[in-house]
Amino acid sequence: EPEVTQTPSHQVTQMGQEVILRCVPISNHLYFYWYRQILGQKVEFLVSFYNNEISEKSEIFDDQFSVERPDGSNFTLKIRSTKLEDSAMYFCASSERRSGGLAEETQYFGPGTRLLVL
Amino acid sequence: GQNIDQPTEMTATEGAIVQINCTYQTSGFNGLFWYQQHAGEAPTFLSYNVLDGLEEKGRFSSFLSRSKGYSYLLLKELQMKDSASYLCAVRPPRGYQKVTFGTGTKLQVIP
Fold first, then answer.
1. Residue in chain A lying closest to B31 (CA)
2. Which residues in chain B have Cβ-Cβ distances shorter than 8 Å to A112?
């Protein structure tokens, strides 16, 4: 069964450093998402991406964050200058966006990257 | 905005039935998801309701009442592996992708 994959599974970085989190969405999916989950808290939407541009972003997704689809398979989240409060689990998700039908709107999540900022 | 309420924790016995409720107040609505999340893992899709009524999928069923802003997830024949958090999530109107998650209900299944 196709699945979303993410690398690395864990990332430890120093405050102020840049990190890039990588995701490979399900191959026939067209919408891509990043979420984060701070330990013990709820899953929070960061950004959605479609047709090589951001389609929606939350207030969390400030200028320190950027997303990119550098090739036909990868989808990345970059945090330019990490802060302690960026420590969280970051989930990538994707959904198939064909017209009609409900199943195509379901978002499937990757296993996550646990980011720890020291 | 979106406000989603779920009980924080529930305990149920192996083999029993448990109902996890979710209420929402939203500025727009285009469907409700239920996800299962084991500790330290990614949310796994369980169900998606857009229309009122009950959707059954094996041991899991999900119900939606749009007029009441209410949904529940029903788990039958509980197994120990069902111990997890169950996340209610609301999808905004068509044209938007921001899915808003509730804080989740941590279900503990005991022997």
1. A102
2. 41-42
